[in-house]
From TrEMBL:
Binds 1 FAD per subunit. It comes from Polynucleobacter antarcticus. NAD(+) binds at residues 192-199, 215, 283. This is Dihydrolipoyl dehydrogenase. The gene is lpdA. The active site is a redox-active disulfide bond. The active site is at 457 (proton acceptor). Residues 359-468 form the Pyridine nucleotide-disulphide oxidoreductase dimerisation domain. The keyword Cytoplasm applies. Keywords: Cytoplasm, Disulfide bond, FAD, Flavoprotein, NAD, Nucleotide-binding, Oxidoreductase, Redox-active center.
Length: 478
Protein backbone atom coordinates (compact mmCIF):
# COMPACT_ATOMS: atom_id res chain seq x y z
CA UNK A 1 0.00 0.00 0.00
CA UNK A 2 1.42 3.38 -0.98
CA UNK A 3 2.19 6.08 1.54
CA UNK A 4 -0.40 8.82 2.02
CA UNK A 5 0.13 12.33 3.37
CA UNK A 6 -1.91 15.38 4.27
CA UNK A 7 0.71 17.67 2.75
CA UNK A 8 3.49 16.83 0.31
CA UNK A 9 6.08 19.47 -0.51
CA UNK A 10 8.03 19.14 -3.75
CA UNK A 11 11.45 20.70 -3.18
CA UNK A 12 13.56 21.06 -0.04
CA UNK A 13 14.81 24.63 -0.46
CA UNK A 14 13.92 27.60 1.78
CA UNK A 15 10.30 27.72 0.63
CA UNK A 16 9.88 23.95 0.70
CA UNK A 17 11.52 22.91 3.95
CA UNK A 18 9.98 25.82 5.85
CA UNK A 19 6.53 24.95 4.44
CA UNK A 20 7.03 21.34 5.53
CA UNK A 21 8.07 22.32 9.05
CA UNK A 22 5.17 24.76 9.50
CA UNK A 23 2.68 22.21 8.18
CA UNK A 24 4.03 19.61 10.62
CA UNK A 25 3.75 22.12 13.49
CA UNK A 26 0.09 22.52 12.57
CA UNK A 27 -0.51 18.80 13.02
CA UNK A 28 -0.44 17.54 9.44
CA UNK A 29 1.22 14.34 8.24
CA UNK A 30 3.92 15.80 5.99
CA UNK A 31 6.44 14.61 3.40
CA UNK A 32 9.04 16.55 1.43
CA UNK A 33 10.52 15.29 -1.84
CA UNK A 34 14.06 16.31 -2.85
CA UNK A 35 16.30 14.90 -5.56
CA UNK A 36 19.27 17.27 -5.97
CA UNK A 37 22.49 15.88 -4.49
CA UNK A 38 24.52 19.15 -4.88
CA UNK A 39 27.84 17.27 -5.05
CA UNK A 40 27.02 15.23 -1.96
CA UNK A 41 29.89 12.72 -1.45
CA UNK A 42 27.38 9.89 -0.98
CA UNK A 43 25.11 11.03 -3.79
CA UNK A 44 22.31 11.65 -1.30
CA UNK A 45 19.74 14.43 -1.85
CA UNK A 46 20.71 17.54 0.13
CA UNK A 47 18.10 19.76 1.70
CA UNK A 48 18.33 23.53 1.56
CA UNK A 49 18.02 24.02 -2.19
CA UNK A 50 20.13 26.45 -4.19
CA UNK A 51 20.22 28.91 -1.29
CA UNK A 52 21.97 26.72 1.25
CA UNK A 53 24.02 24.62 -1.14
CA UNK A 54 25.17 26.77 -4.07
CA UNK A 55 23.73 30.22 -3.42
CA UNK A 56 23.07 32.46 -0.44
CA UNK A 57 24.97 30.62 2.29
CA UNK A 58 28.19 29.60 0.48
CA UNK A 59 28.45 32.98 -1.25
CA UNK A 60 28.15 34.80 2.09
CA UNK A 61 30.80 32.52 3.57
CA UNK A 62 33.20 33.43 0.74
CA UNK A 63 32.28 37.11 1.00
CA UNK A 64 33.13 37.02 4.71
CA UNK A 65 36.47 35.28 4.08
CA UNK A 66 37.43 37.65 1.30
CA UNK A 67 36.49 40.65 3.45
CA UNK A 68 38.80 39.41 6.21
CA UNK A 69 41.62 38.98 3.69
CA UNK A 70 41.14 42.46 2.29
CA UNK A 71 40.94 43.93 5.78
CA UNK A 72 44.18 42.25 6.84
CA UNK A 73 45.89 43.22 3.58
CA UNK A 74 44.84 46.85 3.34
CA UNK A 75 42.98 48.21 6.36
CA UNK A 76 44.55 46.98 9.58
CA UNK A 77 47.28 49.60 9.32
CA UNK A 78 44.59 52.28 9.73
CA UNK A 79 44.04 50.87 13.24
CA UNK A 80 47.73 50.94 14.08
CA UNK A 81 48.07 47.19 13.53
CA UNK A 82 51.14 46.03 11.63
CA UNK A 83 51.15 42.57 10.09
CA UNK A 84 53.58 40.72 7.88
CA UNK A 85 52.88 39.35 4.44
CA UNK A 86 49.27 38.21 4.19
CA UNK A 87 48.70 34.97 2.31
CA UNK A 88 45.52 33.25 1.30
CA UNK A 89 44.94 29.50 1.34
CA UNK A 90 42.08 29.32 -1.16
CA UNK A 91 41.58 25.60 -0.54
CA UNK A 92 41.04 26.24 3.16
CA UNK A 93 38.71 29.13 2.35
CA UNK A 94 36.60 26.82 0.17
CA UNK A 95 36.72 24.04 2.77
CA UNK A 96 35.37 26.46 5.39
CA UNK A 97 32.55 27.37 3.04
CA UNK A 98 31.74 23.70 2.42
CA UNK A 99 31.74 22.94 6.15
CA UNK A 100 29.21 25.71 6.78
CA UNK A 101 26.98 24.38 4.00
CA UNK A 102 27.14 20.83 5.38
CA UNK A 103 26.30 22.04 8.88
CA UNK A 104 23.30 23.99 7.62
CA UNK A 105 21.89 21.21 5.43
CA UNK A 106 22.41 18.66 8.20
CA UNK A 107 20.51 20.99 10.50
CA UNK A 108 17.46 20.78 8.25
CA UNK A 109 17.60 16.98 8.36
CA UNK A 110 17.53 17.25 12.16
CA UNK A 111 14.49 19.55 11.98
CA UNK A 112 12.74 17.04 9.71
CA UNK A 113 13.32 14.26 12.21
CA UNK A 114 12.23 16.50 15.09
CA UNK A 115 8.98 17.37 13.32
CA UNK A 116 8.38 13.83 12.01
CA UNK A 117 8.57 14.88 8.36
CA UNK A 118 9.12 12.08 5.85
CA UNK A 119 11.94 12.79 3.39
CA UNK A 120 11.21 11.26 0.00
CA UNK A 121 14.51 10.91 -1.85
CA UNK A 122 13.95 11.37 -5.55
CA UNK A 123 12.43 13.53 -8.28
CA UNK A 124 8.72 14.13 -7.70
CA UNK A 125 6.17 14.57 -10.49
CA UNK A 126 2.41 14.42 -10.77
CA UNK A 127 0.80 11.21 -12.05
CA UNK A 128 -2.83 12.24 -11.67
CA UNK A 129 -5.60 12.65 -9.13
CA UNK A 130 -8.10 10.33 -7.46
CA UNK A 131 -10.70 10.63 -4.72
CA UNK A 132 -7.93 10.08 -2.16
CA UNK A 133 -5.79 12.95 -3.46
CA UNK A 134 -2.98 13.63 -5.88
CA UNK A 135 -0.70 10.80 -7.00
CA UNK A 136 2.96 11.79 -6.96
CA UNK A 137 5.65 9.62 -8.53
CA UNK A 138 8.97 9.62 -6.66
CA UNK A 139 11.74 8.68 -9.04
CA UNK A 140 14.77 7.87 -6.87
CA UNK A 141 16.72 4.84 -5.73
CA UNK A 142 13.43 3.46 -4.45
CA UNK A 143 10.70 4.28 -6.94
CA UNK A 144 7.21 4.71 -5.53
CA UNK A 145 3.91 6.54 -5.98
CA UNK A 146 2.53 8.37 -2.96
CA UNK A 147 -0.75 10.17 -2.38
CA UNK A 148 -1.26 13.64 -0.94
CA UNK A 149 -4.37 15.66 -0.19
CA UNK A 150 -2.44 18.91 -0.60
CA UNK A 151 0.71 19.59 -2.61
CA UNK A 152 3.08 22.55 -2.34
CA UNK A 153 5.39 23.07 -5.32
CA UNK A 154 8.65 24.67 -4.16
CA UNK A 155 11.18 23.58 -6.77
CA UNK A 156 13.08 26.87 -6.92
CA UNK A 157 15.09 28.11 -9.88
CA UNK A 158 18.28 27.52 -11.83
CA UNK A 159 20.81 29.83 -13.44
CA UNK A 160 19.81 31.25 -16.80
CA UNK A 161 22.38 30.48 -19.49
CA UNK A 162 23.05 32.35 -22.71
CA UNK A 163 22.80 30.60 -26.08
CA UNK A 164 26.13 29.58 -27.61
CA UNK A 165 27.96 30.04 -24.30
CA UNK A 166 28.39 26.51 -22.91
CA UNK A 167 28.67 26.49 -19.12
CA UNK A 168 30.97 23.72 -17.89
CA UNK A 169 31.48 25.20 -14.38
CA UNK A 170 35.23 24.98 -14.94
CA UNK A 171 36.27 27.69 -17.39
CA UNK A 172 32.80 29.13 -17.91
CA UNK A 173 30.67 29.05 -14.78
CA UNK A 174 27.32 30.05 -13.40
CA UNK A 175 26.80 30.59 -9.66
CA UNK A 176 27.67 26.95 -8.95
CA UNK A 177 31.14 26.98 -10.52
CA UNK A 178 31.79 30.55 -9.43
CA UNK A 179 31.77 29.39 -5.81
CA UNK A 180 34.42 26.70 -6.17
CA UNK A 181 37.32 27.82 -8.36
CA UNK A 182 40.27 25.52 -7.72
CA UNK A 183 42.62 28.51 -8.00
CA UNK A 184 42.36 32.29 -7.99
CA UNK A 185 42.00 33.52 -11.58
CA UNK A 186 44.39 36.30 -12.52
CA UNK A 187 41.73 37.78 -14.79
CA UNK A 188 38.04 37.11 -14.22
CA UNK A 189 35.23 38.06 -16.57
CA UNK A 190 31.64 38.35 -15.40
CA UNK A 191 28.62 38.69 -17.69
CA UNK A 192 25.86 40.42 -15.73
CA UNK A 193 26.09 43.24 -13.17
CA UNK A 194 23.25 41.99 -11.00
CA UNK A 195 23.32 40.63 -7.47
CA UNK A 196 25.22 37.41 -8.23
CA UNK A 197 27.68 39.07 -10.60
CA UNK A 198 28.54 41.82 -8.14
CA UNK A 199 28.84 39.49 -5.15
CA UNK A 200 31.01 36.86 -6.86
CA UNK A 201 33.00 39.57 -8.63
CA UNK A 202 33.66 41.17 -5.25
CA UNK A 203 34.80 37.87 -3.70
CA UNK A 204 37.45 37.17 -6.33
CA UNK A 205 38.55 40.80 -6.69
CA UNK A 206 39.36 40.99 -2.99
CA UNK A 207 41.59 37.94 -3.13
CA UNK A 208 43.56 39.10 -6.15
CA UNK A 209 41.59 38.75 -9.39
CA UNK A 210 41.37 41.53 -11.95
CA UNK A 211 37.61 41.63 -12.52
CA UNK A 212 35.71 42.99 -15.53
CA UNK A 213 31.91 42.98 -15.43
CA UNK A 214 29.97 43.24 -18.70
CA UNK A 215 26.32 44.30 -18.48
CA UNK A 216 23.88 44.50 -21.38
CA UNK A 217 21.56 47.05 -19.80
CA UNK A 218 22.49 50.73 -20.06
CA UNK A 219 21.59 51.46 -16.43
CA UNK A 220 23.51 50.12 -13.42
CA UNK A 221 21.29 48.31 -10.89
CA UNK A 222 18.11 49.53 -12.54
CA UNK A 223 15.82 48.10 -9.81
CA UNK A 224 17.67 50.01 -7.09
CA UNK A 225 16.96 53.60 -6.05
CA UNK A 226 18.93 55.82 -8.42
CA UNK A 227 20.79 57.56 -5.60
CA UNK A 228 22.01 54.24 -4.19
CA UNK A 229 22.90 52.86 -7.61
CA UNK A 230 24.99 55.94 -8.42
CA UNK A 231 26.83 55.70 -5.10
CA UNK A 232 27.37 51.95 -5.50
CA UNK A 233 28.83 52.35 -8.99
CA UNK A 234 31.24 54.99 -7.70
CA UNK A 235 32.39 52.88 -4.75
CA UNK A 236 32.69 49.59 -6.66
CA UNK A 237 34.68 51.27 -9.42
CA UNK A 238 36.95 52.82 -6.80
CA UNK A 239 37.52 49.36 -5.33
CA UNK A 240 38.75 48.09 -8.68
CA UNK A 241 35.76 46.47 -10.38
CA UNK A 242 35.73 47.38 -14.07
CA UNK A 243 32.00 47.69 -14.79
CA UNK A 244 31.00 48.22 -18.42
CA UNK A 245 27.35 48.98 -19.18
CA UNK A 246 25.35 48.75 -22.40
CA UNK A 247 27.45 46.05 -24.02
CA UNK A 248 26.35 43.42 -26.53
CA UNK A 249 27.92 40.00 -26.08
CA UNK A 250 29.15 38.29 -29.23
CA UNK A 251 31.13 35.09 -29.70
CA UNK A 252 32.69 33.50 -26.62
CA UNK A 253 35.59 31.08 -27.10
CA UNK A 254 37.14 28.85 -24.46
CA UNK A 255 40.31 26.77 -24.68
CA UNK A 256 43.17 25.64 -22.46
CA UNK A 257 44.51 29.20 -22.32
CA UNK A 258 41.25 30.63 -20.96
CA UNK A 259 38.21 32.44 -22.30
CA UNK A 260 37.87 35.22 -24.87
CA UNK A 261 34.66 37.26 -24.90
CA UNK A 262 33.96 39.28 -28.04
CA UNK A 263 31.56 42.13 -27.40
CA UNK A 264 30.44 45.53 -28.62
CA UNK A 265 30.74 48.37 -26.11
CA UNK A 266 28.17 51.12 -25.47
CA UNK A 267 29.77 53.27 -28.19
CA UNK A 268 29.34 50.50 -30.78
CA UNK A 269 33.04 49.58 -30.94
CA UNK A 270 34.15 45.94 -31.15
CA UNK A 271 36.06 44.81 -28.06
CA UNK A 272 37.67 41.66 -26.68
CA UNK A 273 37.98 40.49 -23.08
CA UNK A 274 40.58 37.80 -22.46
CA UNK A 275 40.23 36.15 -19.05
CA UNK A 276 41.20 32.99 -17.20
CA UNK A 277 37.64 32.28 -16.05
CA UNK A 278 34.21 33.58 -16.96
CA UNK A 279 31.10 33.75 -14.77
CA UNK A 280 27.71 34.02 -16.48
CA UNK A 281 25.18 35.65 -14.14
CA UNK A 282 22.23 36.82 -16.21
CA UNK A 283 19.32 35.92 -13.98
CA UNK A 284 17.47 32.74 -13.09
CA UNK A 285 14.61 30.68 -14.51
CA UNK A 286 12.03 28.65 -12.56
CA UNK A 287 12.38 24.87 -12.22
CA UNK A 288 8.94 23.94 -13.52
CA UNK A 289 9.77 21.42 -16.21
CA UNK A 290 9.40 17.67 -15.60
CA UNK A 291 6.77 18.19 -12.88
CA UNK A 292 3.98 16.56 -14.87
CA UNK A 293 1.79 19.63 -14.40
CA UNK A 294 -0.24 18.77 -17.49
CA UNK A 295 -1.46 15.59 -15.77
CA UNK A 296 -3.40 17.71 -13.27
CA UNK A 297 -4.48 20.39 -15.75
CA UNK A 298 -1.85 23.03 -14.96
CA UNK A 299 0.27 25.10 -17.35
CA UNK A 300 3.12 27.52 -16.88
CA UNK A 301 3.17 31.03 -18.35
CA UNK A 302 5.45 32.23 -21.17
CA UNK A 303 8.37 32.67 -18.74
CA UNK A 304 7.96 29.27 -17.08
CA UNK A 305 6.24 30.48 -13.90
CA UNK A 306 3.22 28.75 -12.37
CA UNK A 307 0.24 31.14 -12.19
CA UNK A 308 -1.10 31.48 -8.65
CA UNK A 309 -3.58 33.57 -6.73
CA UNK A 310 -1.85 36.75 -5.53
CA UNK A 311 -2.99 36.30 -1.93
CA UNK A 312 -2.97 32.54 -1.29
CA UNK A 313 -0.38 31.08 -3.72
CA UNK A 314 -3.11 28.64 -4.85
CA UNK A 315 -2.90 27.25 -8.38
CA UNK A 316 -5.88 26.44 -10.61
CA UNK A 317 -5.77 22.86 -9.29
CA UNK A 318 -7.63 22.61 -5.95
CA UNK A 319 -5.24 21.75 -3.11
CA UNK A 320 -2.11 22.48 -5.15
CA UNK A 321 -0.03 25.53 -4.23
CA UNK A 322 3.25 26.97 -5.49
CA UNK A 323 5.74 29.20 -3.67
CA UNK A 324 9.12 30.86 -4.07
CA UNK A 325 11.04 31.14 -7.33
CA UNK A 326 8.44 29.23 -9.38
CA UNK A 327 5.82 31.99 -8.95
CA UNK A 328 5.54 35.76 -9.49
CA UNK A 329 7.52 38.14 -7.33
CA UNK A 330 11.15 38.50 -6.33
CA UNK A 331 13.40 35.45 -6.33
CA UNK A 332 14.40 35.82 -2.68
CA UNK A 333 14.85 33.03 -0.14
CA UNK A 334 13.03 34.93 2.61
CA UNK A 335 10.09 35.62 0.28
CA UNK A 336 9.89 31.87 -0.41
CA UNK A 337 9.99 31.11 3.32
CA UNK A 338 7.15 33.49 4.06
CA UNK A 339 5.07 32.01 1.26
CA UNK A 340 5.76 28.51 2.58
CA UNK A 341 4.45 29.49 6.02
CA UNK A 342 1.47 31.27 4.44
CA UNK A 343 0.39 28.20 2.45
CA UNK A 344 0.76 25.81 5.38
CA UNK A 345 -1.41 28.08 7.49
CA UNK A 346 -4.01 28.49 4.71
CA UNK A 347 -4.29 24.70 4.46
CA UNK A 348 -4.92 24.72 8.22
CA UNK A 349 -7.77 27.20 7.76
CA UNK A 350 -5.94 30.26 9.02
CA UNK A 351 -5.95 33.71 7.36
CA UNK A 352 -2.28 34.76 6.94
CA UNK A 353 -1.17 37.67 4.78
CA UNK A 354 2.02 38.82 3.05
CA UNK A 355 2.64 42.46 2.15
CA UNK A 356 5.03 42.08 -0.77
CA UNK A 357 5.87 45.79 -0.61
CA UNK A 358 7.47 45.14 2.78
CA UNK A 359 9.85 42.40 1.65
CA UNK A 360 13.44 43.68 1.97
CA UNK A 361 16.11 43.23 -0.71
CA UNK A 362 19.84 42.93 -0.02
CA UNK A 363 23.04 42.86 -2.10
CA UNK A 364 25.91 41.59 0.06
CA UNK A 365 28.70 43.60 -1.46
CA UNK A 366 30.91 45.92 0.58
CA UNK A 367 29.30 48.24 1.34
CA UNK A 368 26.07 46.31 1.51
CA UNK A 369 22.99 47.56 -0.32
CA UNK A 370 19.51 47.03 1.14
CA UNK A 371 16.09 48.46 0.50
CA UNK A 372 12.39 47.97 1.17
CA UNK A 373 9.38 49.66 -0.36
CA UNK A 374 9.32 52.15 -3.21
CA UNK A 375 12.22 53.95 -4.87
CA UNK A 376 12.17 57.62 -5.74
CA UNK A 377 11.72 56.84 -9.42
CA UNK A 378 8.73 54.61 -8.65
CA UNK A 379 7.08 57.32 -6.56
CA UNK A 380 7.68 59.93 -9.26
CA UNK A 381 6.30 57.58 -11.90
CA UNK A 382 3.17 56.97 -9.82
CA UNK A 383 2.69 60.68 -9.16
CA UNK A 384 2.94 60.28 -5.38
CA UNK A 385 4.05 63.36 -3.47
CA UNK A 386 6.85 62.45 -1.09
CA UNK A 387 9.60 63.90 1.05
CA UNK A 388 13.09 62.47 1.38
CA UNK A 389 15.52 62.40 4.27
CA UNK A 390 19.12 61.26 3.86
CA UNK A 391 21.95 60.90 6.37
CA UNK A 392 25.55 59.73 5.73
CA UNK A 393 27.47 57.12 7.70
CA UNK A 394 30.39 59.57 7.51
CA UNK A 395 28.68 61.59 10.27
CA UNK A 396 28.15 58.58 12.53
CA UNK A 397 30.65 57.91 15.34
CA UNK A 398 30.21 54.14 15.31
CA UNK A 399 30.81 53.93 11.55
CA UNK A 400 33.90 56.11 11.83
CA UNK A 401 35.26 53.95 14.66
CA UNK A 402 34.74 50.85 12.54
CA UNK A 403 36.41 52.47 9.55
CA UNK A 404 33.18 51.88 7.60
CA UNK A 405 31.92 55.38 6.89
CA UNK A 406 30.90 55.08 3.23
CA UNK A 407 27.28 55.32 2.15
CA UNK A 408 24.04 56.62 3.62
CA UNK A 409 20.45 55.90 4.64
CA UNK A 410 17.58 57.45 2.68
CA UNK A 411 13.98 57.46 3.90
CA UNK A 412 11.06 58.35 1.65
CA UNK A 413 7.81 59.37 3.34
CA UNK A 414 4.40 60.49 2.13
CA UNK A 415 4.37 64.29 1.85
CA UNK A 416 0.98 64.57 3.59
CA UNK A 417 0.63 61.61 5.96
CA UNK A 418 4.35 61.05 6.73
CA UNK A 419 3.88 57.28 6.24
CA UNK A 420 7.17 55.61 5.30
CA UNK A 421 7.02 54.57 1.65
CA UNK A 422 10.55 53.30 1.15
CA UNK A 423 13.92 52.98 2.89
CA UNK A 424 17.21 52.63 1.01
CA UNK A 425 20.60 51.88 2.57
CA UNK A 426 24.11 51.60 1.21
CA UNK A 427 26.64 51.13 3.96
CA UNK A 428 27.91 48.82 6.72
CA UNK A 429 25.48 46.18 8.04
CA UNK A 430 22.73 47.37 5.70
CA UNK A 431 21.30 43.83 5.68
CA UNK A 432 20.63 44.09 9.41
CA UNK A 433 19.61 47.75 9.52
CA UNK A 434 16.90 47.26 6.88
CA UNK A 435 14.93 45.05 9.28
CA UNK A 436 13.93 48.09 11.34
CA UNK A 437 12.53 49.69 8.20
CA UNK A 438 10.60 46.53 7.25
CA UNK A 439 9.04 46.36 10.72
CA UNK A 440 8.12 50.05 10.58
CA UNK A 441 6.49 49.69 7.17
CA UNK A 442 4.56 46.57 8.21
CA UNK A 443 3.01 48.64 11.00
CA UNK A 444 2.39 51.61 8.64
CA UNK A 445 4.73 53.77 10.70
CA UNK A 446 5.49 57.39 9.95
CA UNK A 447 8.98 58.80 9.64
CA UNK A 448 8.18 60.67 12.84
CA UNK A 449 7.78 57.34 14.66
CA UNK A 450 11.37 56.32 13.90
CA UNK A 451 12.55 59.85 14.63
CA UNK A 452 10.97 59.73 18.11
CA UNK A 453 12.33 56.28 19.04
CA UNK A 454 15.46 56.35 21.21
CA UNK A 455 18.25 54.52 19.38
CA UNK A 456 21.40 53.28 21.16
CA UNK A 457 24.49 55.48 21.01
CA UNK A 458 26.93 54.98 19.46
CA UNK A 459 25.40 52.64 16.91
CA UNK A 460 24.88 52.38 13.17
CA UNK A 461 21.13 52.40 13.81
CA UNK A 462 21.36 56.10 14.66
CA UNK A 463 21.79 56.80 10.96
CA UNK A 464 18.27 55.43 10.41
CA UNK A 465 16.90 57.82 13.03
CA UNK A 466 18.79 60.77 11.60
CA UNK A 467 17.45 60.00 8.10
CA UNK A 468 13.92 59.97 9.55
CA UNK A 469 14.58 63.33 11.19
CA UNK A 470 15.97 64.61 7.89
CA UNK A 471 12.61 64.06 6.15
CA UNK A 472 11.48 67.04 8.23
CA UNK A 473 14.77 68.95 7.80
CA UNK A 474 15.73 68.46 11.43
CA UNK A 475 18.63 66.00 11.48
CA UNK A 476 20.55 66.62 14.70
CA UNK A 477 24.08 65.78 13.62
CA UNK A 478 24.24 67.46 10.22
Amino acid sequence: MSQSFDVLVIGGGPGGYIAAIRAAQLGFKVACAESNAYDDPKGEPRLGGTCLNVGCIPSKALLASSEEFEKASHHLADHGITVGSVKLDSNKMLARKDAIVTKMTSGIQFLFRKNKITLLKGHASFEGKSAEGYQIKIDGKDKEIVTAKNVIIATGSKARHLPNIPVDNVLISDNVGGLKFDSIPKKLGVIGAGVIGLELGSVWRRVGSEVTILEGLPTFLGAVDEGLAKEAHKLFTKQGLDIQMGVKIGEVKADKKGVVVNYTDSAGKAQKLACDRLIVSVGRVPNTDKLGLDKIGLKVDERGFIPVDDHTCATAAPGVYAVGDVVRGPMLAHKAEDEGVLVAEIIAGQKPHIDYNCIPWVIYTDPEIAWVGKTEQQLIGAGIAYKAGQFPFAANGRALGMGRSEGFVKILADAKTDEILGVHIIGPNASDLIAEAAVAMEFKAAAEDIARICHPHPSLSEVMREAALATDSRALNM
